[in-house]
Amino acid sequence: LNGQVYTEGGENLSGCGVFFHMSLDESNRVTCDMLQSLELSGVKVVNDFTAFSRGSDKYVANVLLRKNGVNVPPSVYIGRNYSRRLMDRLFEEWKAVVVKPRNRWGGKGIIKFETSEHFNDYYWSVQHMCDHFYLEKFIPFESMDYRVEIIAGKRVGHPYSRQKGHSFITNIGPEGRGKPVLNEVDDEAIT
Predict the structure, then answer these.
(1) Which residue stretches of 127-186 are H helix?
(2) Cβ contacts of 120 within 8 Å, gap of 6 or more
């Protein structure tokens, strides 16, 4: 309202000195616009619009993590006019890929392919709805997917694991479970 951001209850968030936001589960275009509006109204936003946008886009986050020395899966971002030879080569080298929506989370929309032929069939069936695809090399693991929170090169949170509730997805959404890992694994080995 007039350059100010209000909650449903009528509280003026633009009157805050500092605002912290991290709820990816409630993210959508309106959330991003509201974060940007808060910044424009003069509020110092922790996890600001740019950081939030970069962190919630799997492709951009992967590029930034790799650039900063974090070990992430090999990946490729392709448009509509991708090379069939490239796909054949990727499947030959990687054996399997997961296609991930760039701006979704909780394991929603992730699809695993083990042949370029199957990926191409998928591509031709959805290419009228999507003009780009983000693929990562499928990294097999047993029952646990370990995660550590790192800020500025330092561990800031205890490691935790996510147990599979799906054949290849560990996200909490598709029936996975998270649990703290206290002194069970070496943080350095995980990172």
Answers:
(1) none
(2) 84, 87
